[in-house]
Amino acid sequence: MENADRRTIVITGASDGIGAAAARLLTSAGHRVVVVGRSPEKTAAVAHELGAEHLVADYTRLGEVRDLAARLDETCARIDVLANNAGGILGDRSKTDDGFERTFQVNHLAQFLLTNLLLDKLLASRATVIQTSSMGARLFGHLDLDDLDHDRDFTPHLAYGTAKLENILFTTELHRRYHERGLASVAFHPGGVATNFAAESTSFMRPLYQSRIGKLFMATPEQGAAQLVRFAQTEPGADWQSGAYYERGRVARRTHPQARDAGLARRLWERSAQLVGMAED
């Protein structure tokens, strides 16, 4: 790869699964990859294997997300790609020290905060922001702006599906607000991938993902990472559509009806900004 084509790519949730697989593939393609994960040991191990930089942040603590943004701003002169890949389906309902339901905070609010804290650098770099979403948005999600923590109706699947729906709406609104200034955004479903997904959950999906038989019918982490790698290395407009949600390598034909609601996307952005203390004037 010519040096001019080398990109600085930040991947969260990169200590395992499709994040680690994408980090390996993108490093081997000659890019500068910053590996971000929750586990200090696992994150360092992946980074050491690749000869890459790494940073650690626990998304259940928004203070650590702010520290992560500060470190990235300090160490990266530019960020060409921010892959918001951290997240997953979690266990029984609980609140973080920040006061938010864990699934909502880890899958949406922390990613919203990180992206906005890095926004000036992302705009200057004409960056791509990638959201790892899920078809779970369509299967399980329902967004109620008056109950983002699902205090009234929590189940692990509803919380997860709604968070993945929020990933799509965030992508839509990021495109609307900033695409004319050079920023691109995209969300995708990686498919059923043989990873540690659902390992911390009480979900019915946990036994499937933990079983040998279940894994036989799933994609490998490398296959699951293929779309992320594609978006990270190719050009919006020419190779893919900014602001869209992808399944199986193409713009999804079916989405949750709320995912097409531009007004809801704007209101979710405004509410999220209020919750993380970044409300607009």
Q: Report the average pLDDT across residues.
A: 91
Number of strands: 8
Unreliable spans:
none
> What is the 3D form?
globular
What is the spatial order of strands in the main beta sheet? 3-2-1-4-5-6-7-8
Number of domains: 1
Instruction: Provide the gyration radius in Å.
Output: 17 Å
Helix content: 40-55%
Q: What about the largest sheet?
A: 8 strands, mixed
CATH fold-type name: Rossmann fold
Short description:
The protein has 11 helices and 8 strands.
Q: How would you characterize this protein structure?
A:
This protein is α/β, with parallel strands linked by helices and 281 residues long. The protein has one domain: Rossmann fold (3-Layer(aba) Sandwich). It is built from 11 helices and 8 strands. It has helices spanning 17-28, 40-50, 62-75, 102-117, 119-124, 136-140, 156-178, 205-210, 212-216, 221-233, 262-275; strands spanning 8-11, 32-37, 53-56, 81-84, 128-132, 184-189, 244-247, 250-251. An 8-stranded mixed beta sheet has the order 3-2-1-4-5-6-7-8, with helices on both faces. The termini are far apart. The model has no long low-confidence stretch (mean pLDDT 91).
SSE layout and pairing:
Elements: E1 8-11, H1 17-28, E2 32-37, H2 40-50, E3 53-56, H3 62-75, E4 81-84, H4 102-117, H5 119-124, E5 128-132, H6 136-140, H7 156-178, E6 184-189, H8 205-210, H9 212-216, H10 221-233, E7 244-247, E8 250-251, H11 262-275
Parallel strand pairs: 1-2, 1-4, 2-3, 4-5, 5-6, 6-7
Antiparallel strand pairs: 7-8
Helix pairs in contact: 1-10, 3-4, 4-7, 7-11
